[in-house]
Design goal:
By secondary structure, the protein is of the alpha/beta class. It has one domain: P-loop containing nucleotide triphosphate hydrolases (Rossmann fold, 3-Layer(aba) Sandwich). Helix content is 31%, strand content 28%. The chain contains seven helices and eleven strands. The strands form two sheets. The protein has a seven-stranded mixed sheet, with helices on both faces. A four-stranded antiparallel sheet has the order 3-2-5-6, with helices on one face. A hairpin with a 2-residue loop joins strand 2 and strand 3. The chain is globular.
Length: 245
């Protein structure tokens, strides 16, 4: 990796294309009792389509806040957040929800599957919200289950699956809406080493197919698969490392 020291702001190496994601002097502050917490403190960065980023840093560095903001689960206190040149940081809750549903896929450390639903139903869930009919939703779910190696588990429920299989269901579900951006929060955190490597191989494959991925991790070996590492410290960008060409 090639390190770039950037204490407050950073722009990713770019070609002639416009960035898919752009944060411009983004601040996110919270009031806790009488204390003002600067979770993000002037973050500026561009992420281009097809890149694979890891967000790293100690507890309290701002990495989770940044992922929530990128996923439109939160909005900046100040500054601009753009997706494909559309400013989204100031949108209302309904508009943010629509962006999440149509443009963003999420993979969580704890899988976040619905216990009562089968693998097929969990994968298809975003499509029901998008208004797909039942037959089309099931067909798409079956295709994605096959893609992640779970074609023989379609009628199983989460409790009948291993942790690695549950995370594969979560990956498949995150792809159901064909998202522009895939966000992963410690996707191997609850998995053993061997299973974790399988999930990382799957994410690498998705990235090689030009899927844009941003992943929070505290593990350097997990971050090794990414093209860019963003190190956070005290709500600021401490440095960026890029894969050596």
């Amino acid at each position: 990796m090639v390190a770039t020291n950037t204490p407050t702001t950073a722009k990713a190496p770019a070609g002639n294309d416009r960035p898919l994601i752009s944060l411009d002097d983004v601040h996110r502050t919270y009031v806790m009792g009488t204390e003002l917490v600067r979770a993000l403190d002037g973050v500026t960065i561009d992420i281009h389509a097809g890149q694979f980023w890891a967000i790293m840093g100690p507890s309290g560095s701002g990495k989770s806040t940044m992922l929530n903001l990128l996923g439109c689960l939160d909005r900046p206190t100040r500054g601009r957040y753009l997706i494909a040149d559309e400013e989204v940081g100031g949108l209302d809750d309904d508009a943010l929800s629509n962006i999440r549903l149509r443009r963003i896929g999420f993979i969580f450390q704890s899988f976040n599957l619905i216990p009562q639903l089968t693998v097929r139903e969990n994968i298809a869930l975003p499509l029901y919200y998008l208004g797909w009919d039942h037959a089309a939703s099931e067909k798409r779910a079956e295709e994605l289950a096959d893609r992640v190696g779970l074609a023989d588990r379609l009628n199983h429920r989460p409790a009948e699956l291993s942790g690695g299989q549950q995370q594969r269901v979560a990956v498949a579900r995150s792809l159901a809406n064909d998202p522009t951006i895939l966000l992963a929060d410690e996707p191997t955190g609850n998995l053993d080493t061997s299973t974790g490597h399988q999930i990382l191989d799957l994410l690498s494959e998705l990235n090689q197919q030009d899927r844009t991925i941003v992943m929070v991790t505290h593990e350097p070996d997990v971050a090794d698969i990414t093209s860019h590492r963003l190190h956070m410290l005290d709500g600021k960008i401490d440095r960026i490392e890029t894969a050596a060409s």
